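cron nightly-structures :: item 1 of 1
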Amino acid sequence: MATITLNYDARNFQAKKLLEYVLSIGIFNEEKVEKRRKTGLELAIEDVENGRVYTAYVPKNKRIDAGAS
């Protein structure tokens, strides 16, 4: 099965009616996709998983590992 993504202006009457017609034929299935922004925590976890976290040193040579759990 292939996925087709359509971008159209929802205020355009003709585009909206054409899309409703194509869906009413029954050949295609409509699947809603929810767009959600990632939170800061999710981005931080993704950084740790992908190795984009670095180790820092404080002036007294004490090691602080940001990726340790």
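cron nightly-structures :: done
The beta strands are 55-57, 63-65.
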